[in-house]
Write a structure and sequence with these properties.
The chain is of the alpha/beta class. The chain has 3 domains: 113 residues, K homology (KH) domain (GMP Synthetase, Chain A, domain 3); 167 residues, Rossmann fold, CATH 3.40.50.300; 173 residues, P-loop containing nucleotide triphosphate hydrolases (Rossmann fold, 3-Layer(aba) Sandwich). Helix content is 36%, strand content 20%. The protein has a 6-stranded mixed β-sheet with strand order 2-3-1-4-5-6, sandwiched between helices. Strands 8-9-7-10-11-12 form a 6-stranded mixed β-sheet, with helices on both faces. Helix 1 packs across helix 13. It is globular. 40% of the residues are buried.
């Protein structure tokens, strides 16, 4: 940064002192250009909360979330469908799944509710079995404990409703379930939930591969292969690995669990993750596909860059755009791969280019690779596209460069006047990278179209190839003089 640019930046920063700034604003400004990135939260997959009816599963879910989300009522059977919620504890992101009450020898609707609970356990990384400590072990608890032991999944036993020392002492009787140490908790009052969550997060980390049990070599980047069913994700992983690592079949939806593989590509190691195909919005997916979609989302969160694979031999579908949008909204670097390119004729390529321009226009900043997973054609170009996307994803722009750039941009293309007022950009800083996030201090609200204009200009000037850019606007008013 030149002396002149530094002086201009300092003058703009000093001008902010005349505006009402909050504590978070000051912290952001003091940390500008520090170049330090916060430690990203780890995403550890699914945690299923199961148990018989009315033992307090939904109350425990609400306590884990720190807010009232799951419906709670003092009668059994309120929760029927499996419901998922994003949760966070001790630097780890995960998805907690609230399930309906599980009972034995059921028929009709209760049986289907129990099936959903069993399915949640089957496809989750770990489970919390909730037992009513005031009642003790019932036949249903023992039957469910047998199912959990056979699953081989980590299980944390929660002795709920331990609201006092007497009930807490009685919780020791739950050792008889054979699931290890019971954790006395009171979901209603929050007692003991912290210790329970510590154990749950540790179990999730070991099961999902995000904890200390997995040690990739230094510098290995994580890549998620995503796309709708049957676009060739598993075929691509097998071609990259040089072995039949994932099951490939003409039937869509063969892959449900994310499959990790350490792959040597362009002289470096990469951790590729083959994920389940995304069919439609998660809220509309049923059964095993629901949990597969959740695990795909968790795999994207754990990755640094996503390769959105699209079948070039078919018409672009709504799901293709949704897959790309999912990666961008997660803040991951993005590469778009068009598979089955060997099946394309010149006429089809012409119409595909038009479709890409119309349907994938908002993500034109993502590098494209035209390849064939079956024959291996152009697969070697993936490494270059991944490098370009990751470079843009972690790029930083100094505060001096950013404000100088915005000053010239606004002078040439000022914001339109709205209701007799024209908002001004007072100061800007890059709050973080991975993905690039910019904060603009302004005197008024910026139109969405003007924000997009700034985003396009940032990409053209600083080359944020493959990176979703996030722009936050903080409207601040001039401080009134004291009388």
């Amino acid at each position: 940064m030149t002396d002149q640019t530094a002086a201009q930046t300092e003058a703009l920063r000093s001008a902010l002192d005349g505006y009402d700034l909050q504590a978070e604003d000051l912290a952001l400004l003091e940390g500008a250009d520090a170049g330090r990135e916060p430690e990203p939260a780890r995403s550890a997959g699914l945690l299923a909360v199961v148990g018989r009816p009315n033992v307090g599963k939904s109350t425990l879910v609400n306590r884990i979330l720190g807010r009232r989300e799951a419906v709670v009522q003092d009668q059994p059977g309120v929760t029927r469908d499996r419901v998922s919620y994003p949760a966070h504890w001790a630097g780890t992101d995960f998805v907690v799944v609230d399930t309906g009450g599980w009972e034995i020898d059921l028929a009709g609707l209760p049986a289907r509710v129990a099936e959903q609970a069993a399915l949640a356990v089957d496809l989750a990384e770990a489970a919390v079995l909730v037992v009513d400590a005031t009642v003790g072990v019932t036949d249903a608890d023992e039957a469910l404990a047998r199912v959990l032991r056979r699953s081989g999944k980590p299980v944390i036993l929660a002795a709920n409703k331990a609201d006092n020392i007497r009930v807490e002492a009685e919780a020791a009787r739950l050792w008889s379930l054979g699931l290890g140490e019971p954790y006395p908790v009171s979901a209603l009052h929050g007692r003991g939930v912290g210790e329970l969550l510590d154990s749950a997060v540790a179990a999730l980390g070991q099961a999902a591969g995000s904890g200390p049990a997995v040690a990739d070599p230094p510098g290995v980047r994580r890549v998620a292969l995503i796309g709708r069913p049957n676009v060739g994700k598993s075929s691509l992983l097998n071609k990259l690995a040089g072995a039949e690592r994932s099951v490939v079949d003409q039937v869509a939806g063969t892959t449900r669990d994310p499959v990790d593989e350490l792959i040597r590509l362009d002289g470096r190691d990469w951790r590729f993750v083959d994920t389940a195909g995304i069919r439609r919005r998660v809220a509309r997916v049923q059964g095993a596909d629901f949990y597969a979609s959740l695990r795909t989302q968790a795999a994207i969160e754990r990755a640094e860059v996503a390769v959105a694979l699209i079948d070039a031999s078919q018409e672009l579908a709504e799901q293709d755009a949704r897959v790309v949008q999912m990666a961008a909204e997660a803040g991951r670097a993005l590469v778009i791969g068009f598979n089955k390119w060997d099946l394309m004729d010149p006429e089809r390529r012409f119409y595909l280019e038009r479709s890409i321009e119309l349907d994938l226009g908002p993500w034109s900043w993502a590098p494209r690779v035209n390849l064939s997973a079956l024959t291996g054609r152009r697969v070697d170009r993936l490494a270059g596209a991944l490098d370009a996307a990751l470079a843009g994803w972690q790029r930083r722009v100094s505060t001096g460069q950013l404000n100088s750039f915005l000053g010239q941009l606004v002078a040439a293309h000022p914001h339109p006047v709205r209701s007799g007022k024209q908002p001004r950009i007072l100061f800007a800083t890059q709050a973080s990278a991975r993905p690039p996030r910019f904060v603009l201090f302004t005197t008024g609200f910026l139109d969405p179209t003007y924000r997009r204009f700034i985003e396009r200009a940032l990409r053209e000037t600083f080359d944020f190839t493959g990176a979703p850019i996030q722009i936050s606007v903080r409207v601040r008013e001039k401080r009134q003089p004291r009388r």
